[in-house]
Amino acid sequence: MTRTGSPAPTLVEVARLAGVSRATASRAVRGGERVSPEARAAVEAAVREIGYRPNQAARSLVTRRTDSIAVVIPESDSTLFTDPFFATVLHGVTTALSSTDLQIVLLVGQPGERAARMVNYLRAGHADGAIVVSHHRMDNVVEALAESAVPAVLIGRPWDASLPLTWVDVDNAGGGRLAAEHLLARGARRPATVAGPADMAAGRDRLAGWAEVVAAAGLATDAVEHTDWTADAAAAATGRLLDDHPDVDGLFVASDLMAEAAMEVLRGRGIAVPDRVRVVGFDDMGLAARTRPPLTTVVNPAPAMSRRAVEMLLAQLEGTGGTESVQFPTALVVRGSS
Amino acid sequence: MTRTGSPAPTLVEVARLAGVSRATASRAVRGGERVSPEARAAVEAAVREIGYRPNQAARSLVTRRTDSIAVVIPESDSTLFTDPFFATVLHGVTTALSSTDLQIVLLVGQPGERAARMVNYLRAGHADGAIVVSHHRMDNVVEALAESAVPAVLIGRPWDASLPLTWVDVDNAGGGRLAAEHLLARGARRPATVAGPADMAAGRDRLAGWAEVVAAAGLATDAVEHTDWTADAAAAATGRLLDDHPDVDGLFVASDLMAEAAMEVLRGRGIAVPDRVRVVGFDDMGLAARTRPPLTTVVNPAPAMSRRAVEMLLAQLEGTGGTESVQFPTALVVRGSS
DNA sequence: TTGTAAGCGTTATCAG
DNA sequence: CTGATAACGCTTACAA
């Protein structure tokens, strides 16, 4: 650890200097319970004098805790920084943990190469627990986590629902239904959707909810394009949709970031929003209110989900439950785009 | 660590099951040097059978290494996610470390409340070393780090140059000079600047370089507004600048994110860029090419700096140097805004 | 309130 | 190549 030649001071040196036993020194260092004022003062002075810091490895070898929890984001760093979903979640987790003594440690990296390393990190006991957040990709991080005993809560339901993992998520299918109902109510007769990836729960479920309502209304559900969550891919998908179905008059896009790109394409083609095509997004994290026109969207309650995930993880760490997954209801915010 | 009642398997159980000593088991687990094929096979089988994972705390208690390095970003999460500087640096650090076995751990949090926790985390030996990146704020994280013996490299020179810390940085003053020279060469006679915070090295130095050239040309250097690095503050500062000095014809803004906001204000006032006011930014990380008009800007070689910082840290960890700070030269990229 | 002593799970040294 | 054995630095019953 140290560059300097001299080894880091240990508790025995503190104890010797303070004239107490190692046990007493230990209690005092932790602001302990049963220490006399004199002993505490002596220890504190000794600590200051020699610059003592407890060795975390030694400590957690016996306590079996590290006082840190990991936030795992199995995405590439570019995704992490472009999609506001992650910023919102991270902010929520941070504030929810601010009252505790837990240090937050962020593990970022695409699934694949670094995934094994991340899981090893967790299984080795580097963190007391983990919050895993992603746009629900079915990845090996989640699988590996499932067969480890590391306390964990997922933000975003895993693809494989049978995995013994606790999660929080928004009602994606319900959101898709809300979007479709709204578009139909506004008079759309030829609805289309730019859906998320077909191999992610969020993509699949948002699409399924939308399709359910559209089909129930006796309308076609064939105007569908799957993409990843990026703006570029969404723009391309929107282009294909318009080429194949020129009569589209209502568009549900699986995220606001993607919806903004879709509206850009519409504008580029001279198609008026909402006059000729009505658009509904998903997320409502600030961006939706800033687009032109402002975006009607399905609320993704990421702050509340993050808070809840933290509560559940803390409960797991204390052994007081926190193992029941929860799905948050959603709502539609109507703005100028529809 | 574990939720399950059964304690995690240890090396002694592996050894017993494999019919070897604890020492041999340990060597085999690490793909060790002097182990017979049979012993290795037996150990590997035992590991698989009981799902053994080495206990990191025990391991690093003796090796004094954790095989992880921390990237410390003492900024609020909103800053982290809005300014492309951090995304770029993180990407650079990640790729530079991808060939090693080191796990990257991200510590994010505003200086102040969580700063002590971050430094404690490092000093406790949770990570083998740290890369600290920020827009150079003078903060207690850096100070605390300076008096610890944790190997560290700063990306961005610390405010207090006397601190015994290693850093990499761009030649901020040189960048400011480049910007000013360019503006003057294009005919600006009333240059102004939206500068970064006065209490950060990057803010101070970019301003100083600009002022040096402007003064040398015999022009006034009084059109200066300090702001933090946010777009909102930059917009406000630009407004004040225009109010106070309506004859401004050249504007150097301390970051591209801020320059974009400044151009927005100019456009809102019907002031043509570059025809009436020429604008130069700082960073050139993708954003500059996407603004309208595209932004002339000073290159901030964040990818190269990140790579270098990683190399230096690795050298420090191996005790082979890496303690000499380095300043990167910069360059101007001319685009439509000037 | 304090001290004694027994671990926590690994790695490393050093004979065999 | 293998196996005792001694650390590593700290916490925590348990006794005093």
UniProtKB/TrEMBL annotation, chains A, B:
**InterPro entries linked:** HTH_LacI, LacI/GalR-like_sensor, Lambda_DNA-bd_dom_sf, Peripla_BP_I
Keywords recorded for this protein, A-Z? DNA-binding, Transcription, Transcription regulation
In alphabetical order, the GO MF annotations are: DNA-binding transcription factor activity; transcription cis-regulatory region binding
SUPFAM superfamilies annotated for this entry?
lambda repressor-like DNA-binding domains, Periplasmic binding protein-like I
**Coiled coil (UniProt feature):** none
Q: Superkingdom of the source?
A: Bacteria
All copies of domain HTH lacI-type, residue ranges: 9-63
One Pfam match:
Peripla_BP_3
UniProt key word Glycoprotein = no
- Name of the protein in its database record: LacI family transcriptional regulator
- Can you name the source organism? Georgenia muralis
For this protein's source organism, the top of the classification is: Bacteria, Bacillati, Actinomycetota, Actinomycetes, Micrococcales
